[in-house]
Amino acid sequence: MISKEMAQALNDQINEEMFSFYLYLSMSAWFETQQLPGMAGWMRKQAEEEMSHAMKFFKFLSERGGAVTLQAIAKPKASWKSAAAAFGEAFNHERHITGCINALADKAIAAKDHATLEFLQWFIKEQVEEEATVEPIVYKLKATEGHMGTLFHLDHQLGKRAG
Ligand code: OFO
Fold it and tell me: Considering the entire predicted model, what is its pTM?
């Protein structure tokens, strides 16, 4: 059975993942208002991924005999200065999440909780991928600033995201 302290930390992470879902859904809505449907779709898929992350923690915590206690989700921002600013915030947010996952792994190591540590391995790898996916998009968007044609081309490319 999982310790109370670790259960609390995993509950907090469910909230982080739910906020990630909310943040990217809000970005998706904003991209729709900017006539950038490809980026809106990309962010909607990202939001769905975050919901699946929250559910992974939900299921693991339940399986280990911990009580899932849902918390209030903070209100996300609703607008950004530019597409580059939105993706830049997404990148910073992923770096924050990487820090949360690393802190959870440190806690599991300190508590000799091998099951939780093993469970977190998937997220450690996922965060490497998440950061590596978003960073080049930020770079390209910064390079397109002021070039609408390039921005629409990039929007079209990002709209092809499969899942
Ligand atoms: Fe974006 O990885 Fe979960 O939060």
Answer: 0.96
CB 30, CB 66: distance < 8 Å = no
Would you write out the chain's pLDDT as a tens digit for each of its 163 residues? Answer: 899 999 999 999 999 999 999 999 999 999 999 999 999 999 999 999 999 999 999 999 999 999 999 999 999 999 999 999 999 999 999 999 999 999 999 999 999 999 999 999 999 999 999 999 999 999 999 998 889 999 999 999 999 988 7
- Other C-beta atoms lying within 10 Å of the C-beta of residue 125: 10
21 lines ligand 1 (CB under 6 A): no
Distance 149 CA to ligand 1 centre (A): 31
Ligand 1 centroid from CA 157, angstroms = 22
Q: Is 28 in the pocket of ligand 1 (CB under 6 A)?
A: no
